Structures are given as structure tokens and as C-alpha cells.
């Protein structure tokens, strides 16, 4: 997949956070920490909306098309969410959800195939993936602490493991980290 195909995903002007409260709340907090200036939409079928934090019931209900989405739903729901994002013309997603090919089971392989099929041509990280931070464009699709400052230049750190990528980001290095990617199972986008 050419690099231009992932630009909307890694430098989003709009983000949809879909699913589990604790994880999507952490992604929202990370974006606030890094100074994200785009639009953040929250998607959850039952969470109560407030004027300060509205929740949409589904991807179809969003007021616009997200450039990037963070999917934190049960594994059997993830393919349908990917299909809804593809139908809307989204830029791509991070599939935080686990329980796919990493299980080594028939069910995991089937769900992985369904995720790929439903995603169509959308680029995505994962499944079973912690996501990424783009310090250049101030965008975070990572459900954990964001350590680092916006940068003009730096290197990309690409890891399979979210834990390893976080551990490395917490260390003082002489080379600044501009991108931090955790790619998980690498079903679509890989190292």
C-alpha cells in the first residue's frame, strides 16, 4: 500500500473513538495532551451524551467522515465496525480489539478474515494493536500516556508490541521520536 494511502489515517483532521469507555477515554485524553486540533467524535451505543461530550450511537450516525478511527469493541463486532467505516469512506483505523489471528484458533482466523473483508481497501493497524502517536501533526491513537512533545523533525519507531513501544518512548533518547507505531498482528499494515 503506497504511503499516500495512509496519510489520512496517520495525520487525521477528524477522529472517531468507537467502543469501550476506559480505552477510548484514554485516547481522547492523549489527544488533549498532545494538542490535537481536529474534531473528535465519540461512538458508543449506550453512553449518555452531554453537551460537552456527545456520543453517537453508530458510525452511520456521525456528522462527518472520520479520517481515523480507534476501534475498541468485542472482537466479533470489529468486522462490522470496519465495514461501517469503509462504507462511510473513512481514512483508516486502529483495531485495538484482540482475539483474532494471535489466538491461533479457527475462530480467530475467521474473524481476521472477516475484518480484512469488511475493511475493504481501508488501511489499518492491528488487530490486537496499541496504535500510534504522530508528534509532528499532534495526533494520538494510543490508549495510554503520551510522552513527548510536538516536533519539527525526528525518527519513526515501529514496534509490533505496544508495551515495547511505550517502554522505549518513556526513555530519554538523543534522537527525538516523531512517530510511534505499534502494529499488533499486522493484518493489513506491517512493519
CATH architecture: 3-Layer(aba) Sandwich
Q: What series of H and E elements makes up the topology?
A: HEHEEEHEHEEEEHE
Largest sheet: 6 strands, parallel
CATH class: Alpha Beta
Question: How many beta strands in the DSSP annotation?
Answer: 10
> What is the oligomer described by this structure?
single chain
CATH topology: Rossmann fold
Count the domains.
Answer: 1
As a percent range, the share of helical residues equals 25-40%
Radius of gyration: 16 Å
Going by CATH, what is the homologous superfamily?
NAD(P)-binding Rossmann-like Domain
Averaging pLDDT over every residue, what do you get?
89
Give a written overview of the molecule:
It is a single chain. Helix 3 (78-88) packs parallel to helix 4 (106-119). By secondary structure, the protein is an alpha/beta fold. It has a six-stranded parallel sheet with strand order 3-2-1-4-5-6, with helices on both faces. A four-stranded mixed sheet has the order 8-7-10-9. Helix 5 (162-169) links the parallel strand 9 and strand 10. It has helices at 7-10, 21-34, 78-88, 106-119, 162-169, and strands at 14-19, 39-43, 55-56, 68-72, 93-95, 124-125, 131-134, 139-141, 155-159, 177-182. It has one domain (3-182): Rossmann fold, CATH 3.40.50.
Amino acid at each position: 500500500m503506497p504511503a499516500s494511502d495512509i496519510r489520512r489515517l496517520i495525520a487525521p483532521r477528524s477522529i472517531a473513538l468507537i467502543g469501550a469507555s476506559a480505552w477510548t477515554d484514554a485516547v481522547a485524553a492523549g489527544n488533549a495532551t498532545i494538542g490535537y486540533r481536529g474534531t473528535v467524535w465519540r461512538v458508543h451505543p449506550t453512553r449518555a451524551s452531554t453537551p460537552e461530550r456527545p456520543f453517537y450511537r453508530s458510525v452511520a450516525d456521525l456528522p462527518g467522515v472520520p479520517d481515523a478511527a480507534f476501534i475498541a469493541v468485542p472482537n466479533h463486532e470489529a468486522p462490522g465496525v470496519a465495514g461501517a467505516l469503509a462504507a462511510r469512506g473513512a481514512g483508516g483505523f486502529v483495531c485495538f480489539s484482540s482475539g483474532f489471528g494471535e489466538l491461533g484458533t479457527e475462530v480467530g482466523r475467521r474473524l481476521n478474515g472477516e475484518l480484512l473483508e469488511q475493511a475493504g481497501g481501508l488501511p489499518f493497524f492491528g488487530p490486537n494493536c496499541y496504535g500510534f502517536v504522530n508528534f509532528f501533526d499532534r495526533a494520538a491513537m494510543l490508549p495510554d500516556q503520551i510522552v513527548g512533545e510536538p516536533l519539527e523533525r525526528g525518527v519513526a519507531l515501529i514496534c509490533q508490541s505496544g508495551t515495547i513501544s511505550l517502554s522505549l518512548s518513556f526513555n530519554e533518547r538523543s534522537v527525538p521520536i516523531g512517530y510511534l507505531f505499534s502494529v499488533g498482528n499486522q493484518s493489513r499494515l506491517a512493519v
